[in-house]
Design goal:
By secondary structure, the chain is of the alpha+beta class. The protein is globular. The longest helix has 38 residues, at 217-254. It has helices at residues 5-23, 217-254, 263-267, and strands at 56-59, 72-79, 86-94, 111-119, 126-139, 142-152, 163-169, 176-179, 201-214. The chain contains three helices and nine strands, in the order αβββββββββαα. Strands 2-3-4-5-6-7-8-9 form an eight-stranded antiparallel beta barrel. It has two domains: 5-214, no CATH class; 220-267.
Length: 268
């Protein structure tokens, strides 16, 4: 027997709700901790919600006036849940590929913030999470991002410092979203950069916007040069400090404030 799209969507939402609450740890929040009722620290993030699909695919440096200069994932939305659960996501992510890649891979430019929250319909169970983006990859209307949780009111403090992943399909008024903790618990999972699950959840209200701009080799070269310059600057600064300490030690020995045989031990 075939099921209608709404029936299939309701069934999927029920499975997702059960999975996510289990992944969040099945804890109880204080009464009145409904979504939006808890005062919490905020990371800067935009709520950019333009109407329509808004997908733009260009090569870096191309396109007319006003064309996107780099890839981005922005916007805020509430997920569809038939039982009234309150699940919201917000992104302000820009760039392409991780800034700190594996050795031998050109550095990227990904940066930004994310926020998400999940509460039961009565607001008695749930939590907020906020963090920094460490990777963004885009392709057409799809974006995959990862980031590290920096702040949360989740009672299991192991969530702080954990990397989580998101995938967004920008489909106009029918956006979809997926996340890495659909099949594991946030406190115990280990998510690599730039990886997440398929976008299986549907958006009830709000909007996500994906801009896809493929970086050029010139962009990668500029990013590599910038990172190399930062590394060289840090190294030069460290060497300068060490040089000052060495010169100070020599002066101390000369003036009799430090025994000569203690000079080497002082430098170690």
């Amino acid at each position: 027997m075939s099921r209608s799209p709404r029936t299939r969507r309701a069934a999927l939402a029920t499975v997702a709700a059960t999975t996510v609450l289990a992944a969040l740890g099945g804890f109880t929040a204080t009464a009145g901790a409904a979504d939006g009722a808890v005062e919490r620290p905020r990371l800067s993030a935009s709520a950019h919600t333009p109407a329509g699909n808004g997908v733009e695919t260009v090569r870096s440096g191309k396109g007319g006036k006003g064309a996107a200069k780099e890839s981005s994932l922005t916007g805020s939305a509430k997920m569809y849940r038939e039982d009234g659960q309150r699940v919201r996501f917000s992104f302000d992510a820009h760039g392409f590929a991780p800034k700190d890649p594996e050795p031998g891979t050109p550095p990227g430019t990904s940066r930004g913030t994310f926020r998400f929250s999940h509460f039961t319909a009565d607001g008695k169970q749930g939590a907020h999470f906020e963090g920094r983006i460490d990777c963004l990859l885009t392709g057409g209307p799809v974006a995959t991002a990862t980031g590290v949780i920096l702040r949360s009111d989740h009672p299991d403090r192991r969530v702080i410092g954990k990397r989580v992943g998101f995938t967004v399909y920008d489909n106009g008024k029918h956006d979809r979203l997926g996340y890495s903790w659909a099949v594991d618990a946030i406190p115990t999972m280990n998510v690599p950069k730039c990886l997440s699950a398929a976008p299986y959840e549907t958006v009830e209200s709000g909007d996500f916007t994906v801009r896809h701009v493929m970086p050029t080799n010139e962009d990668a070269g500029k990013s590599a040069e910038k990172n190399a310059g930062k590394s060289a600057g840090k190294s030069a600064g460290k060497n300068a400090v060490q040089g000052e300490h060495a010169a100070g030690d020599e002066r101390a020995v000369k003036n009799g404030r430090m025994p000569a045989d203690g000079l080497e031990g002082h430098r170690k």
